[in-house]
User: Fold this.
Amino acid sequence: MHFRDPSFNNLQAVPAMSEGGMVSDVVAAVASIDPVMGGVDR
Assistant:
């Protein structure tokens, strides 16, 4: 079986969350989903 960390799926929502905003809003969008980058790299 192959399991993905929930953070991997959450990071896929960042483009939709930051659409129509400014570049500085991307930082807030990523911080709001609280990713664990160690789990994303697996």
